[in-house]
Specification:
- Among the domains are: 40-234, Rossmann fold; 240-308; 422-641, Alpha Horseshoe (Serine Threonine Protein Phosphatase 5, Tetratricopeptide repeat), CATH 1.25.40.10; 652-749, Serine Threonine Protein Phosphatase 5, Tetratricopeptide repeat, CATH 1.25.40; 908-963, Winged helix-like DNA-binding domain superfamily/Winged helix DNA-binding domain (Arc Repressor Mutant, subunit A).
- The chain has 49 helices and twelve strands.
- GO terms for molecular function: adenylate cyclase activity; ATP binding; DNA binding.
- Keywords: ATP-binding, Nucleotide-binding.
Length: 966
């Protein structure tokens, strides 16, 4: 990859000289979102395009065709994403520049930025810096630069999405991030949200990145995008014909074999080819005679560093010093910073900068930059160690005086020799604390950087390790947290510090779904007698939830009670609330529905009155679940809706997949299968965006159940394969979420014997753990039917006994009594009990449960009216699997459903979304109109586009207009 210098060439001829560099006196090298510079522009400068297409994209015709097609589609209304991957210097940046030029020619707005390694410490700086280029198009993104974006993550991303949707509704947009592996963590999270969310809008994303030894948030996001279907372009080295074309373009003449022999020695890397040939030209070893270039001289450059040194030596002594000194800056630097670093006066500096712009430096719009970071590294390598350390000490002072982030100052201090280490560690630690809330992975990396700088036996090392482990836990980097934590534990710590460290490890394992390990770490922490009640309460709270997921219900309840008691006594209210929610889970699993609701109400009351960390535990999640189990669907919907809105206001991203999970289960219980599927699908997408894979597993279980109900067994099998893949990593989940969905799929496929074997645990555990019945009151009837089909009346009897016991324990639950009557009626062939089951479920809002009992009661009494009623319910709910079965058994077609003249291929829920989108509403506006989450609307729209085989919102609008007769 060759970055052109300030003197660009056109068709091999130099462009006219400029009067002088148009640089601000003190540009902001960070382009912070709330600190705009007057001359801030995309790092990918606009006038570079002339060289891009003529000089720098040789051998990339296929890639350029892909880019042109994509951008033409965007101009026509399509959205999407393209990821370019390859090693440094292979030509990614030039394809990026070509994309910018093509987009401009097509009339697209362009938001472009090159990310830098130091972006990692400045949340949202990458995307905000790119969108700065669009501010002149309107005021859509002005809030990014006035400080109003300083809110929680969720709110920031929500505002950014709304701004982009509004902008794209008026003009197609290309968003470009070069060196995207250095994206900051919040920008990377926003990209995971925004790329799929805006897929139906005319927004195209182009990311260019290269592999790094460490999995940065940016690199993880690029790989996530590719796994999700983003078009990848993997760039390799140039072939010989392309090298010949490139060489001729660089020198402005045909080239002979002496030139090609050297160029081919650069390994097909276009950056190295360009720099080599420019160095040969600068050292007068490249001569053009009769229109053909040849190489003369005996001592030729043999490496990239040599070529850069050749260029350096062609410059004046003052400019050489400027270039070498400023190579300590890894970002664009300002004239004032260069003046202070080199000791030259301002007037002299402008002359030296102008000379440097001929080959090595470039005007980056927001400062002076090296033509490529590899060039900077090559120059940097020419500095002796002592000089390098002195320059970094001065650069640290300059960066501090300019008010740049602590991470940049610390980077210079760390490279300034041993004396700077202490200050650097303190600054890194402070920087980690500053960004921990918005970017825990970045904060963890800062702490790890500080640890690397500390001597092995430094007295502060163990304290820093404890802090780093907590941050790694928050970032769900479990293996790394465990390795680092065990290192500190082996070194020996005081009781309180060790307990805090073990708490961090327990939380890390819990967040990753490794619940057994979480229990082990919590137990080790609780083994210390001399720790405070607040720490003990937090350990008990984590232990309670982890024990629930390893099926130790009694232990979970006891730990939850300890967490609540100690948390209230020590004012650790977050632990108290979390302990109470664990007790609610346990009570519901044991079939004590009243107790489940009481614990959830208590937790909700504590959170509301105490606020702070307690409020961020969102006990409304478990309150909604308890109300759903009690058939109080309206209240459950209100509680879940209010809780989700509060979660969005507070920015607690971890809770988002859980809201989707419990709301999907509520919708499924209502029989609203399309809405439930969209909700669960959105939950999977959200959890994967957050890399919360432990929450993906139960959501996939929900999708399997829903797919079986809808008769889409292929989709169910795909979800099952993904669930198994995740569980092989050590994630654990409740049997109701993973075993039951698989058993339902096997039963639907006609493999009832395998389903019976797989579900064997339920037949034995239901008396002590009737959670499956409270979650799905149709389950006892299905289990009895499977057992009877295998000739095992004893197993069927255990199900009936457990369900009847649950009904006695919860006399107010019509669903529990209906489930008991249904199971007993099937076991004993008792029509009276089946009629009783029908009557019970008529008193609940559980429509599919009613349909299931109607089907069995109709078979027992040969009631065609009940068959017809059941068939009508399942048809209306979209339960295609049950519909087909009923049609086979009853020999009738489903009741005639009035066909919509508009978009008949869509479900009613999808049609509502489609019509609003066709009327010009954005996804966020549709979400507000229909009281849905924005992720649910996104999911509906993906399915709508797939069913209608379209890619653009305008196509949907035209289709609706045509069908309306417009």
């Amino acid at each position: 990859m060759i970055i052109t210098s300030g003197h660009h060439r056109h068709n091999g001829r130099p462009r006219p000289e400029r009067a002088g560099p148009a640089l601000p006196a003190r540009p902001d090298r960070h382009a912070q979102p709330d600190q705009p510079t007057q001359q801030a522009q995309p790092r990918i400068d606009e006038h570079a395009g002339e060289t891009v297409l003529n000089e720098q994209t040789f051998g990339r015709s296929d890639e350029m065709d892909t880019i042109r097609r994509a951008l033409a589609g965007t101009a026509a209304g399509e959205g999407g994403c393209l990821v370019m991957l390859g090693p440094a210097g292979v030509g990614k940046s030039h394809l990026v520049r070509a994309a910018v030029q093509t987009a401009t020619e097509l009339g697209l707005a362009v938001a472009a930025r090159e990310a830098f390694k130091l972006d990692l410490a400045a949340p949202l700086v990458t995307l905000a810096g790119a969108l700065r280029a669009c501010t002149r198009e309107g005021e859509r993104f002005s809030w990014l630069f006035d400080g109003s974006h300083r809110t929680e993550q969720y709110r920031t991303i929500d505002l950014l999405r709304a701004s982009l949707e509004d902008f794209a509704a008026e003009r197609p947009l290309l968003i470009v991030v070069d060196d995207a592996q250095w994206m900051d963590e919040l920008s990377a999270l926003a990209v995971r949200e925004l790329v799929p969310a805006l897929a139906s809008s005319p927004v195209w994303w182009v990311f260019a990145g290269r592999p790094e030894p460490v999995e940065t948030p940016g690199l993880q996001t690029l790989n996530w995008l590719i796994r999700g279907g983003a078009a990848p372009i993997r760039l390799s080295v140039l072939e010989e014909p392309a090298i010949a074309e490139l060489s001729a373009a660089v020198v402005g003449a045909e080239v002979d074999n002496t030139v090609l022999a050297l160029a081919n020695g650069c390994g097909g890397n276009p950056l190295r080819v360009g720099q080599l040939l420019r160095a040969l030209r600068a050292s007068r070893q490249l001569v053009i005679t009769a229109g053909t270039a040849t190489v003369i001289g005996g001592e030729l450059p043999s490496s990239f560093v040599d070529t850069v040194r050749e260029v350096l030596e062609s410059l004046s002594e003052g400019t050489q010093w400027l270039v070498r000194a400023c190579s300590v800056f890894t970002r664009p630097f300002g004239v004032e910073a260069a003046t202070r670093l080199t000791g030259h006066g301002p007037a002299e500096m402008y002359r030296l900068v102008e000379e440097g712009l001929t080959e090595i430096l470039t005007d980056a719009g927001d400062g002076i930059a090296f033509s490529h970071d590899l060039v900077r590294q090559a120059v940097y390598s020419t500095l002796p160690r002592t000089l390098r350390e002195r320059l970094h000490r001065e650069a640290a002072t300059i960066s501090r005086d300019e008010g740049l982030p602590a991470i940049e100052v610390a980077e210079h201090l760390l490279k300034s020799g041993r004396a700077g280490t202490t200050d650097a560690v303190a600054m890194l630690r402070a920087a980690a604390r500053e960004v921990a809330g918005a970017a825990p992975a970045t904060a963890a990396d800062l702490m790890l950087h500080a640890l690397e700088a500390l001597p092995a036996h430094d007295q502060n090392r163990t304290v820093l390790i404890a802090e780093a482990v907590g941050l790694l836990a928050s970032a769900a980097r479990v293996d790394q947290a465990r390795r680092l934590g065990e290192e500190a534990l082996d070194a020996g710590l005081d009781a309180e510090t060790e307990a805090e460290l073990l708490l961090g490890l327990a939380e890390a394992c819990k967040h990753a779904g490794q619940n057994r390990s979480a229990v082990e770490y919590a137990d080790r922490g609780l083994g210390h007698e001399k720790i405070g009640d607040a720490t003990r309460a937090r350990l008990y709270a984590i232990r309670a939830h982890a024990l629930f997921y390893v099926d130790d219900l009694e232990g979970a309840d006891a730990s939850g009670a300890d967490a609540q008691r100690l948390g209230m006594a020590s004012s650790e209210y977050g632990a108290a609330v979390f302990g109470e929610t664990a007790r609610s889970l346990v009570a519901q699993a044991q079939g004590r529905m009243g107790a489940a609701l009481a614990h959830a109400k208590s937790a909700t009351s504590t959170a509301a009155t105490r606020g702070g960390r307690a409020r961020h535990r969102h006990p409304a999640i478990w309150m909604g679940s308890a109300l759903t189990a009690y058939d109080r669907f309206e209240e459950a919907g209100q509680v879940l809706g209010r809780g989700r809105r509060e979660s969005e206001r507070l920015g607690t991203l971890w809770a988002q997949p859980l809201w989707h999970y419990y709301n999907a289960n509520l919708l499924a219980a209502r029989g609203e299968l399309d809405e439930a599927t969209a909700e669960a699908d959105a939950g999977v997408a959200t959890a994967e965006q957050l890399t919360a894979y432990q929450l993906v597993v139960p959501l996939l279980g929900t999708l399997i159940r829903l797919a079986v109900l809808r008769g889409d067994l292929e989709a169910a099998k795909a979800h099952l394969a993904r669930m198994h893949e995740l569980m092989r990593t050590g994630i654990t989940a409740t049997p109701e979420d993973v075993v039951w969905p698989e058993a339902l799929l096997l039963h639907a496929e006609g493999q009832s014997d395998v389903a019976f074997s797989l579900a064997a645990g339920f037949y034995g555990s239901l008396p002590e753990r009737p959670a499956l019945i409270t979650m799905d009151p149709t389950a006892p009837g299905i289990l009895v039917g499977i057992a009877l089909g295998q000739g095992d009346r004893a197993a069927a009897g255990r199900v009936v006994a457990a369900t009847e016991a649950l009904a006695r324990r919860n006399p107010e639950s019509h669903a529990a009594h209906g489930a008991a009557a249904h199971a007993g009626g099937l076991l004993h062939g008792d029509p009276a009990r089946l009629r009783q089951a029908v009557d019970c479920f008529r008193r609940t809002p559980r429509r599919l449960a009613l349909a299931s009992t109607l089907e069995d009661a109709a078979r027992a009494e040969d009631r065609s009216d009940w068959y017809a009623e059941a068939l009508g319910i399942v048809s209306e709910c979209g339960a295609t699997g049950a519909q087909r079965r009923l049609q086979r058994q009853h020999g009738s077609a489903p009741p005639a459903e009035p066909k919509s003249e508009l978009l008949p291929e869509l479900s009613p829920a999808e049609r509502k979304v489609a019509l609003l989108v066709a009327d010009g509403l954005t996804n966020l506006q549709v979400a507000g109109e229909l009281y849905l989450s924005r992720h649910t609307v996104d999911s509906h729209l993906r399915h709508i586009f797939a069913k209608l085989e379209i890619k653009r919102r305008i196509e949907l609008a035209k289709r609706v207009e045509r069908e309306r007769g417009g």
